[in-house]
Amino acid sequence: MQDFIYQSAPMRVVFGAGTLRQLPDELSRLGVVNALVLATPRQKDLVAGIRAMIGERFAGVFTGAVMHTPVEATERAMETVREVRADCVVAIGGGSTTGLGKAIALRTDLPQIVLPTSYAGSEMTPVVGQTSGGIKTTQSSPKILPEIVIYDVDLTMTMPPGLSATSGINAIAHAVEALYARDRNPVISLMAQEGIRTLAQALPRICIQPDDRAARTDALYGAWLSGICLGAVGMALHHKLCHTLGGTFDLPHAETHTIVLPHAAAYNRDAAPEAMARVARAIGAEDAAEGLYDLAVAVGAKTALKDIGMAETDIDRITDLVTQNPYYNPRPVTRDGVRALLVDAYEGRRPVRR
Ligand code: NAD
Predict the structure, then answer these.
(1) What is the pLDDT of residue 259?
(2) Given 60, 100, 182, 301, which residue has the most CB atoms within 10 angstroms?
(3) First to last CA, the chain
(4) d(CA 91, CA 120)
(5) pTM greater than 0.90 (yes/no)
(6) Could you give the dihedral angle defined by the CA atoms of residues 106, 112, 115 and 117, in that order, rounded to the nearest 10 degrees?
(7) Domains along the chain?
(8) 284, 308 contact by CB (below 8 A)
(9) How many other C-beta atoms can be found within 10 angstroms of the C-beta atom of residue 47?
(10) Which atom of ligand 1 lies at the shortest distance from residue 230's CA?
(11) How far apart are CA 215 and CA 209, in angstroms?
(12) Dihedral sign, Cα of residue 157, residue 176, residue 96, residue 125
């Protein structure tokens, strides 16, 4: 075993079914008087229930959360923050809504309560990615880490099977990269393996029966574990690729992760054999990369970047951006290697061992 440092994040997590009911108590714990509720336009109906539940501590709502946290949306939300004199943000939604709450906290240091409704995992990290002029940059700060996360399985029951599948594989991606992170440690690696295992078993069940409560509970548990991994150790080539693709072309986040992950795993196959063996074991496959691809197919997800809005002529541009300033990666990041990976992901080829 290599030497390691382990540090856990100072946050409170409430997990279960019907836990949304605990929001008033959690607001009291923080001494909140004026809570601003955040959501996307699609999930704005959730706000009425929260309003009824928290009574006069409901200061207002902003339902303009958008994917990849464009700074224009954050600036609009900041006007509402000032208008209602918010002393807390309550983000109910997927990673986009969580991202908006974090962007506000970065600017104000307001406390955050997050009620995740997808498996993105952002709620467990002190990182926010913000987009301005088509460029997505990330920032990390203790101010960004949410104070309280309330996981309520009931809030995930409405997630359509397609989003459940890709959002779940997005979570798996955090855990896969945690297993070969330069700063990995044995505790996070255990969480990563358990996160991959629970998600890989739960997602096919959810696709067959979206109201399978036990499967939904397992998936949310796996997503929480994977989110911890994302917040605790450094990410590598896979996250760099998805981040660049998402920020540059506004590609859908979870679908991009789902398509790229098997190819990133194939890229690192021989450079991180121990991590790949753990991934393979967790998903019950012979080979991690092939198993991740087969999982995506099994849950009905798209497997080619050309099918989610990327143009073939963009491959060189992304290759340049990814190789200019690469993250740590177990296998050195080369132009030829990344280009070949992107061609495979663009075409949606199964990453067979050659
Ligand atoms: P999302 O939050 O944009 O959700 C996609 C759509 O599904 C939205 O319209 C949303 O309202 C809807 N939705 C979410 N949950 C639902 C539910 N239970 N029922 C019905 N509809 C539901 O997408 P996402 O994949 O959750 O998050 C992606 C964003 O999160 C990206 O901007 C990404 O960069 C960010 N992210 C950040 C981190 C981090 O650590 N900083 C980690 C993961 C993701």
Answers:
(1) 98
(2) 100
(3) 30
(4) 14
(5) yes
(6) 0
(7) 12-155 (3.40.50.1970), 161-347 (1.20.1090.10)
(8) no
(9) 19
(10) 40
(11) 9
(12) positive
Locate the ligand 1 atom nearest the alpha carbon of residue 138 and give its number. 41
Per-residue pLDDT at 326: 79
The pair of three-digit structure tokens given for residue 222, joined into one six-digit string: 């796996």
**Any idea of the CA torsion for 309, 239, 262, 197, to the nearest 10 degrees?**
-120
For helices 253-267 and 161-179, give the axis angle rounded to 10 degrees. 40
**Span 28-85, pLDDT tens digits:** 999 999 999 999 999 999 999 999 999 999 999 999 999 989 999 999 999 999 999 9
Tokens in use for 119?
A: 């498996």
Q: How many CB atoms lie within 10 A of CB 342?
A: 23
d(CA 87, CA 110): 6
70-90-150 Cα angle (round to 5): 115
Helices (H), 84-184: 95-108, 153-156, 161-179
The rounded Å distance from CA 119 to ligand 1 centre is 8
Q: Which two tokens stand for residue 341?
A: 């990976």
What span, in angstroms and rounded, lies between the C-alpha atoms of 69 and 185? 30
Report whether 202 contacts 135 (CB < 8 A): no
Q: At a CB cut-off of 8 Å and minimum separation 6, what does 188 contact? A: 6, 178, 181, 228, 229, 232, 233
Phi, psi dihedrals of residue 250, rounded to the nearest 5°: 55, 40
Of 174, 104, 113, whose CA–CA distance to 143 is shortest? 104
Q: Write out residues with Cβ below 6 Å of ligand 1.
A: 40, 42-43, 67-69, 93-97, 99, 117-118, 120-122, 125, 127-129, 155-156, 158-159, 163, 167, 170, 230, 253-254
Distances (CA, A) of 131 to 69, 73, 103, 248, 330: 6, 10, 11, 9, 28
Amino acid (1-letter code) at residue 132: S
Amino acid at 220: L
Ligand 1 centroid–CA 255 distance in Å is: 11
pLDDT at 339: 97
- What is the pLDDT at residue 128? 96
Chain length of the chain: 354
Give, in order, the Cα–Cα distances in Å from 165 to each of 71, 339, 347: 28, 27, 20
Phi and psi, residue 160, nearest 5°: -60, 150
